[in-house]
Specification:
alpha/beta; D-Amino Acid Oxidase, Chain A, domain 2; 9-stranded mixed beta sheet; 14 helices
Length: 469
């Protein structure tokens, strides 16, 4: 048996973040029809942050939050735990979709990150936050050139960036594949344990009087008169003045919401805690960079507080035909085997290490590759979805937009293009599946050619649709 398969053999299908003794028991499901001012549908980051912010702005608000499974079960408890202040997925994407708003979005992103970390501190939420910035590595000569140019531009703009040549990068993290690296130390970017954020917010909301019902699904939602909404949850009904949809990639009864995003499966693996010999072989424990390689189909990886390595992304990412979210796609051997093989290509000196966990989750991506806010039913229903892989921090800002759309202390941000501009809709099936899959193959091919993009990718670039999960 090849060693990457042997390393996976005894792994547990479960998010590493979920597999902790501090995981709280699920709360009882809804057992009778109830009323409230604000109903929040979804117990992930967006829903939890929305409830916290409403309670801080208007403490007397009567809030109910429902979650189909348990709080933190979706993408919020299955991601890599990278905190990134970006709200619009990079400068190029921002300039194309929201011209003239880059500086403001940068400031709002920094403010959002500060407020997020302040909230964790204020409510004593231990999330294992590490302020390590973001490190991007080059693994081919084309990436070296691109990253060097980025470094020079960012340095000239006054950003806190550090350049590593081949020798110095490998001294930071020892991989024979590394040719250079760019360490971005601006702001407060770093890593966290995402599930602990969810569970800490859950405990805080209960103390603030929010009613939370887990194992409770939303089946349908309809207007009730001219000023209320009726949400059907199986045998029971929730009547509310307002509804905030925080379902992100998962099915939602509102067609307007569904049309703005597609669900994309991402897969991850985690090693057992590394021993002293293994740690010494890579030296990463001394620097603890949050890592990603400069590529179209990039990997993202980091060290946990107990010295495991989590590893995700790359070519294992998949969109399944007709917005597939069925859990038959969750535990796919080929996806994890590909990740394991690529892991050992990066760290061959760790041959013999075992993977303790494997898991998957669903990213919601929009055609503009960042969050999409919207409202319906004369402002009684609002949502923000489609974080496209950068939702750990951005979801708090998305929640802010959604509650302001519902009238909770609205501010000038609602007048921004970022909020008001509609994204391009996804094309219907089967063109959608064909387009996403063909694009992914083109991106993989470009990576094998040092980043050189073919005609299809150049066409997408001209429409600012140059990358896809």
């Amino acid at each position: 048996m090849q060693h990457h398969l042997e390393a996976l053999k005894d792994s547990k299908y479960c998010s590493l973040w979920h597999d902790q003794d501090v995981r709280p028991d699920a709360l009882p499901a809804l057992s009778k029809s109830v009323n409230c001012e604000l109903l929040i549908v979804g117990g992930g980051f967006t829903g939890l942050w929305a409830a916290i912010q409403v309670k801080e702005r208007k403490p007397e608000t009567d809030i109910i939050l429902i979650e189909k499974t348990f709080v933190g079960d979706g993408a919020s408890g299955r991601n890599g735990g990278f905190l990134n202040s970006s709200l619009a997925h990079g400068d190029t994407n921002t300039d194309h979709h929201f011209p003239g708003e880059a500086d403001l979005l940068y400031q709002l992103g920094q403010q959002n990150m500060t407020e997020l970390l302040d909230t964790l501190k204020r409510y004593n939420i231990e999330a294992y936050y590490e302020h390590v910035g973001e490190t991007e590595v080059a693994t081919n000569p084309g990436s070296v050139k691109t990253l060097r140019q980025a470094y020079e531009e960012e340095k000239a703009a006054g950003d806190d960036v550090v350049w590593f040549d081949k020798e110095s990068m490998q001294a930071q993290v020892n991989s024979p594949t590394y040719l250079a690296g760019l360490w971005r130390r601006n702001g407060q970017d770093g890593t966290v344990d995402p599930a602990r954020i969810c569970w800490g917010l859950k405990a805080t909301l209960l103390k603030l009087g929010v009613r939370i019902f887990e194992n409770t699904s939303l089946n349908d939602i309809q207007p009730l008169g001219s000023d209320k909404m009726r949400s059907n949850c199986g045998y029971f009904v929730i009547e509310s003045n307002k509804v905030l949809m925080a379902t992100n990639a998962f099915h939602n009864p509102l067609s307007k919401l569904r049309k703005s995003i597609i669900p994309v499966w991402d897969y991850q693996i985690a090693t057992e805690p590394l021993n002293e010999t293994q740690l010494a072989a890579i030296g990463w424990h001394k620097t603890r960079h949050a890592m990603g390689n400069h590529a179209n189909m990039f990997h993202y990886y980091r060290m946990t507080h107990d010295n495991r390595i989590t590893w995700g992304g790359g070519g294992a990412v998949r969109y399944y035909f007709n917005n597939g979210t069925d859990y038959n796609y969750a535990d796919v051997d080929l996806r994890f085997e590909q990740l394991a093989e690529e892991f050992f290509e990066t760290f061959p000196q760790l041959a013999g290490v075992k993977f303790s966990h494997r898991w998957s989750g669903i990213i919601a991506t929009s055609t503009r590759f960042c969050m999409v806010p919207k409202q319906a039913f004369d402002g009684r229903v609002a949502w923000t979805v489609g974080y496209t892989g950068l939702g750990v921090a951005a979801s708090r800002f998305g929640a802010r937009i959604a509650i302001e759309l519902l009238g909770y202390q609205p501010s000038d941000i609602l007048q921004m293009q970022f909020v008001k501009k509609k994204p391009k809709p996804w094309v219907p099936e089967p063109l959608r599946w064909f387009g996403v899959r063909y694009t992914q193959k083109a991106l993989v091919k470009a990576d094998t050619k040092g980043g050189k993009r073919g005609l299809w990718l150049k066409l997408l670039d001209s429409m600012n649709l140059g990358f896809s999960c």
